[in-house]
UniProtKB/TrEMBL annotation:
The protein's name in its UniProt record: DNA alkylation repair enzyme
Pfam families: DNA_alkylation (PF08713)
Length: 159
């Protein structure tokens, strides 16, 4: 089923509720357990309390393409979700926003995520840094050492 088919109410104004319902279709308890171990969500661990549905990042990013017209107010609701994958989807929606303040806020969120799990942030940046708005990238790598910041700032779009 195509992602766009799941946006029933108004494809030019999708809601956080529609996004959450759509992502629910990809839920995997087995994958959720793996993610909970990886992100160390147990008592006293750095990811304590984070909730996972078990949706793969590729599925989230592909699904997010159908929601590019989601209003900022709805994306804000997604960012408040206790569910990791829903917040990740919200960040993906903000990644290519044209507003400079959104770039700063998204970079700040990525930087905060990197304080919890630096390898995961670097994996994300390895994939997207070349195409990210520069302000967003600068904010997200602010706590990296100078050589690593230079590496990511030096990545350019192909073509």
């Amino acid at each position: 089923m195509a992602a766009i088919e799941l946006i029933k109410e108004n494809p030019l104004n999708p809601t956080a509720l529609e996004f959450s319902g759509h992502i629910e279709k990809y839920r995997s308890p087995v994958e959720a357990m793996k993610l909970m171990r990886y992100f160390k969500t147990g008592k006293g661990q750095y990811g304590e309390g984070d909730v996972f549905m078990g949706v793969r990042m590729g599925q989230i990013f592909e699904m997010a393409k159908a929601y590019i017209h989601m209003p900022l107010e709805e994306i804000e609701l997604l960012l408040q979700s206790p569910i990791h994958e829903i917040r990740t989807g919200a960040l993906k929606l903000l990644l290519n926003d044209r507003e400079d303040l959104i770039h700063k806020a998204t970079g700040w969120m990525l930087r905060s995520a990197g304080q919890v799990n630096r390898p995961q942030l670097q994996k994300f940046l390895d994939k997207y840094a070349a195409t990210m708005p520069r302000t967003l990238l600068r904010y997200s790598i602010e706590h990296f050492d100078k050589p690593l910041r230079s590496h990511y700032m030096g990545l350019k779009r192909a073509g």
